[in-house]
Write a structure and sequence with these properties.
The protein has 540 residues and is mostly beta strands. Helix content is 5%, strand content 39%. Strands 2, 4, 5, 7, 8 and 14 form a six-stranded mixed beta sheet that branches.
């Protein structure tokens, strides 16, 4: 039984998901950041749904071309992300859409979608509709209610505030009877001109709630992102059946996993990586050659049948829009020192945990190559040669040398040509880790593990076989925190502050009393600002 084996589909046959998609605002300029929160709910009960762990997000133009594609890791029933609007795109409306892998079994009309407007200040605005002057761009609403009577109430501490002043607000969520509700809210404070009412949210509909008649083509990603595909023979195109396969990532940390292909040659790996990683997929057995890997693309290639409207701008507010454009450019110049906090580094161990031996080559005299290093300074490891082929053997302190070869890794990737490994210059190697016991991964057994880590950690020192599937892939987008400046000292005194988004909190919890509080500092710019609050209550 493989740890990568997927759960039975019957467990999810009645699962029906939908996503609510929130952004910090509706109007952006090229180069600006978009802050997004996605809530996953059960489409039948409306309650938060925690099955799918991956949310796919796309930014599409009016021809359904994806100008941006991201994977968001769902923590609990929601996920968040930040990305920058590409600088080279044209002024116009764009569609943000979000979905889970399980939602791909239904029509793309069911995906969560939201229209955002983008202005490229370095090109002429030809694709915009200007509303006549004097038309109110939107009512000023302090408190709002959902269709079932759930209310979000916010207390406004005053009508006007000074520059760089700390402002605090209290929020309360209640049911139709006035009783408090626990809720997860996303809150943004933005320049009012950027909360353009011409960009409406397109909600996912309530159609087709029944399960598919046939076996779904997409499985729910209940444990992480599914890297799936087929392994076939190049000449005959026949599937490589029931073959042990490995997926590994190039780097100084050994992150390797194993699975088995089915009768159709199909395979699945459950991956929880962040950022762009170089991925290698290959058979465990050296006897399998002349194959190719056909990897499934994770993003949907189905699109709904509708066209985006043109950008709608209020001509009476063009002066405010121009000010916001200048503010965005000021932000780019100063890079907003301290705006983003880096997430903590991943400090997890190699997949084989702690090795019994770790030899750092720099601690010894310089030797010519790895072959000499194995002979002179690396314990519990010996070389042999049979039928003109070099082999490595791990020596167990109790049992002696193992009968079979160990799993040999080079910069985190399994390798099988020991002559290439032994010929690598020793000065290229940083360390060698050795597991001197049998290593079990499901029903695969390795007689020890040997991990060669180079100083560069990029596999450049090993002449890798070009036929092996090797590809740089974008996985989860790194989580980032919106950080408003705090004017409690003179540290930021000389940095101008013309933020278009003053505050963004994608995870404000109200608690059992229905209450929550948030605060931020105003900027250097006078004007009208809008507070937007939306979210999901614990009862849906």
């Amino acid at each position: 039984m493989y740890s990568q084996e997927l759960p039975g589909i019957d467990k999810f046959k009645n699962l029906r998901e939908e996503i609510l998609l929130n952004t910090d605002r509706s109007l952006y300029f090229t180069g600006e950041d978009i802050w997004i929160k996605a809530f996953v709910r059960n489409a039948i009960s409306g309650k938060p749904e925690e099955i799918s762990k991956v949310i796919y997000l796309e930014m599409l133009d009016n021809k359904n071309f994806p100008v941006k594609q991201l994977m968001i890791k769902a923590e609990g029933s929601s996920g968040m992300v930040r990305f920058s609007v590409p600088r080279d795109i044209r002024t116009g409306n764009y569609l943000l859409r979000a979905y889970t892998r399980w939602m791909e079994n239904w029509s793309p009309d069911q995906f969560a979608t939201r229209i955002i407007s983008v202005i490229n200040p370095f090109e002429r605005v030809e694709q915009a509709i200007f509303r006549p002057e004097g038309i109110d761009p939107g009512q000023k609403i302090k408190n709002s209610a959902s269709s079932d009577g759930t209310k979000i109430q916010i207390s406004i501490p005053g009508k006007a505030f000074g520059t760089r002043e700390k402002i605090s607000f209290d929020v309360k969520v209640t049911d139709p009877k006035g009783d408090p509700l626990d809720a997860e809210l996303s809150v943004s404070v933005i320049k009012s001109v950027l909360a353009d009412p011409g960009t409406d949210v397109i909600n996912s509909t309530k159609q087709e709630l029944r399960a598919p008649d046939s076996l779904p083509g997409y499985l729910p990603e209940a444990e992480g992102h599914l890297v799936s595909g087929y392994i076939r023979m190049k000449i005959t195109d026949e599937p490589v059946k029931n073959a042990d396969l490995s997926l590994s990532f190039v780097g100084k940390k050994a992150e390797c996993m194993f699975t088995k292909s089915d009768e159709k040659g199909q395979f699945f790996f459950i991956v929880n990586q962040t950022g762009t990683r170089e991925m290698v997929i290959q058979p465990v057995s050296q006897d399998i050659s002349g194959y190719y890997i056909d990897l499934k693309q994770p993003f949907s290639n189905k699109f709904p049948d509708y066209k985006l409207p043109q950008v709608s701008l209020d001509s009476s507010r063009l002066n405010d829009i121009n000010k916001a454009i200048i503010a965005a450019q000021v932000k780019q110049v100063y890079k907003e020192t301290g705006q983003l906090k880096e997430p903590p580094k991943n400090l997890s161990n190699d997949f084989f945990e702690t090795p019994e031996k770790s030899i750092f080559i720099s601690d010894y005299i310089e030797l010519s190559d790895v072959k000499e290093a194995v002979k002179e300074i690396i314990p519990n490891l010996v070389t042999s040669r049979q039928n003109g082929r070099y082999q490595l053997r791990v020596i167990n302190n109790i049992r002696g040398a193992f009968d079979n070869e160990p799993l040999v890794l080079f910069d985190g990737v399994p390798v099988y040509d020991m002559s290439k490994v032994l010929n690598v210059l020793s000065k290229e190697i940083e360390r060698v880790d050795i597991v001197t016991k049998k290593y079990f991964y499901s029903d695969i057994v390795f007689d020890g593990v040997v991990n060669f880590v180079t100083k560069k950690g990029n596999l450049s020192a090993y002449n890798f076989d070009n036929s092996v599937f090797r590809q740089a892939t974008d996985f989860y987008s790194p989580p980032e925190i919106f950080h408003s400046p705090e004017y409690t000292s003179d540290t930021l005194k000389h940095i101008p502050d013309f933020r278009n988004t003053l505050y963004w909190n994608p995870s404000l919890r109200t608690g059992s009393d229905g209450k929550g509080t948030f605060s931020f500092y105003s900027s250097d710019e006078e004007g009208e600002f809008t507070i937007v609050i939306s979210g999901v209550t614990s009862d849906g």
